[in-house]
Recover the amino acids of this structure.
């Protein structure tokens, strides 16, 4: 990870949204150039996305000493999960992202991922 302090900002923002009750967080991974999140929204998905992107962009830009600059791209992609098998496949895809990228040997070795918590349960 090029900037661990920025990954931590994004991770903390994702975790906080779950604690605040905006969604039930199921899985996530923060990579250097993208993020995957699997969640059950409690608020509207548009509000969740705006909140996570807004808070993390503000905090990341502060840490980077940048003010008013774009942090996230405008687009985001969402899709519904229709079965337990699909849920498990998507969760595994998310948590295995750093392994597939050759960054770690096991998902739980990537500290900006839900795999770390799942491995310790």
């Amino acid at each position: 990870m090029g900037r661990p302090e920025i990954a931590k900002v994004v991770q903390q923002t994702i975790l906080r949204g779950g604690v605040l009750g905006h969604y039930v967080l199921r899985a996530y991974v923060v990579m250097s150039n993208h993020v995957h999140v699997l969640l059950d929204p409690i608020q509207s998905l548009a509000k969740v996305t705006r909140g996570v992107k807004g808070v993390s962009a503000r905090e990341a830009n502060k840490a980077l000493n940048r003010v008013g600059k774009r942090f996230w791209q405008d687009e985001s992609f969402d899709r519904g999960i229709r079965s337990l098998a699909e849920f498990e496949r998507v969760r595994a895809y998310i948590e295995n992202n750093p392994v597939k990228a050759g960054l770690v040997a096991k998902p739980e070795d990537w500290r900006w991922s839900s795999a770390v918590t799942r491995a310790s349960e």
The chain has one domain: 4-120. The chain has five helices and two strands. The longest helix spans residues 45-63.
